[in-house]
Amino acid sequence: MTSATSRRRPDDDAEVIVVGAGPAGSTAATYLARAGLDVLLLEKSTFPRDKVCGDGITPRGVKQLIDLGIDTREEAGWLHNRGLRVVGGGVSLELDWPDLADFPPYGVVRPRNDFDDLLARGAQHAGARMVERTTVTGALTDERTGRIVGVRAKQGPERTPVTYRAPLVLACDGVSARLALSLGIEKRDDRPMGVAVRRYYTSPRSKDDFLESHLELWDRSNPAEPKLLPGYGWIFGMGDGTVNVGLGILSTSKAYGRTDYRQLLRSWLDGTPEEWGFREPNATGRVGGAALPMGFNRTPHYRDGLLLVGDAGGMVNPFNGEGIAYAMESARLAADCVVHAFARPTAASREQALRRYPTAVSQALGGYFRMGNIFSKLIGNPTVMRMATKHGLPRTTLMRFVLKLLANLYDAKGGDAMDRVISATTRLTPSA
Ligand SMILES: Cc1cc2nc3c(=O)[nH]c(=O)nc-3n(C[C@H](O)[C@H](O)[C@H](O)COP(=O)(O)OP(=O)(O)OC[C@H]3O[C@@H](n4cnc5c(N)ncnc54)[C@H](O)[C@@H]3O)c2cc1C
């Protein structure tokens, strides 16, 4: 009896099953299929489908798109932005994305409806077999070893029970993490969570060279007595006449879990200038919301034939709520370990290759996420946040440093003095 990975068995449906065709699943499936593996990509919805998101992608995410071979030029339909506008403490500061060797100098905005469809089609083009309308309900395990040998699912409009078998499964099913939960891999309460809501409006602010981030949200319903609201907001122009506006709150804030987030969004937006258009008649859809699993809040990232990737492994950046770049980055690392595993002759050495995955994500992101977890505790305290906004924002050089830190954009080797400070600190911070 062995508890290590075997290669494909006669009754297997694929060499690898990838559950969920968001950025994590489609990226992993693309790399795996390109390496020649037989990949089954199971997705509960049908494409194109929406996903509640801010639709903003920093240069870190753009790098992942370029690595995947996607044409990210404006001619190919991508709306570029040149940096971040930070608003708070009565100041508005425009910061260009840093000039770096490791990352491109632009971010992009693209509706998830279209973005996720593009990535999923890319995975199919690479050879992955995608099966839509298939909701995975749990893991199939080998009774003797406890190892995952496939998944159970409900399929089609009748929700017909089906099973699919494979020696390896990638959980890319997002924040619900149903597959991991079915194996008892629970959420960690010592890591931050966020919750965010967003809505689209038609607005004259649709074309903007900057992603806009609001460090303070004010309720100005009574102009004589403006009230500071909890949370941080964004305004991302979509370039098509609409704007994606939203806000997020961290679990370290007192307001977390006790707030009507939709009402909070309304209170903030009602107080924004009339001419921006963030009023009910201009809304093009409903308020959507979801949780943000941060700072590796679900571990272990590998166990018994199951790899957790993207939101399923809690890979949202605790500094800024960005998750697409990290979903794609972890997918690439996971695919790399799986490809190496399949190239090995014995079950034990295949298992060794798979155990490299948690180490690889930890090396890539662990120190940085750990700093983010500490940061999230600090800014959960309104006094610290107010001091930082008041004294930090007016100092441009300091803010350039903060931008590099918050967006995880620095050259890991070399770079300028700021890059070297961030790089050394992430290396010295014990991995999450
Ligand atoms: C309001 C909000 C705003 C955000 N804004 C940004 C932003 O501007 N930029 C950014 O980078 N990140 C943002 N994020 C975070 C980002 O959306 C996620 O981190 C990212 O989508 C994670 O990708 P993923 O592939 O891991 O998971 P997901 O994108 O959630 O994909 C999971 C996929 O799995 C499928 N699935 C789920 N369960 C099952 C199942 N049981 N069986 C089969 N299929 C299943 C889903 O349908 C989906 O296709 C935001 C999040 C929220 C909530």
UniProtKB/TrEMBL annotation:
Q: Which residues form the FAD-binding domain?
A: 14-187
Q: Which InterPro entries match?
A: FAD-bd, FAD/NAD-bd_sf, Geranylgeranyl_Rdtase_fam, Geranylgeranyl_reductase
Mind telling me which SUPFAM superfamilies this protein's record contains?
FAD/NAD(P)-binding domain
Superkingdom, taxonomy of origin: Bacteria
Q: Which Gene3D superfamilies match?
A: FAD/NAD(P)-binding domain
Q: Cite a single Pfam family from the UniProt record.
A: FAD_binding_3
Ranges in coiled-coil conformation: none
Q: Which PANTHER family match?
A: CONDITIONED MEDIUM FACTOR RECEPTOR 1, GERANYLGERANYL DIPHOSPHATE REDUCTASE
Protein name as annotated:
Geranylgeranyl reductase family protein
Task: Supply the source organism for this entry.
Answer: Saccharopolyspora rosea
